[in-house]
Amino acid sequence: MIFLLHRVVLMLPRLRPAAFTLGFLSFTVMAASAQERIQNPIAIFAGLDKITGRIVQFDVAVNETVQFGALQVTPKTCLTNPPTETPETVAFVEVDEITLQKETKRIFSGWMFASSPGLNAVEHPINDVWLIECKGGATPAPPDIPPVGQ
Question: I want to staple 78 with a disulfide (CB 3.0 to 4.6 A). Which of 13, 40, 100, 149 is the partner?
């Protein structure tokens, strides 16, 4: 990756050094935080049945599909920040609706954020679905610290 960035610098000599430095730093920070996210095998959703007014929590394994009412929910990835960073849970989710004619229609494909359920929740005439959290991911191992006196 460094080699590729070096080639870009050589190919674009007119870039202002300050602008490139800021761009490089923001790219480096984004790449570092994306690498530190924890992959989780299970996404936890909440679903609202608007007819009965009941809210149900349900677990869905990544790349598995669970049906909630007329909706089929499939998380493709579920990520959390490590405990040393600000808590944030995000998942890429696909939601399909099963119509009365037994046809499948994609009604949502995108990122859901647990911290902002109203931002990308699936709002349907009968059922709503939103992300609660992810679970089951391995936490990063703490660094090895030698005992005092060695």
Answer: 40
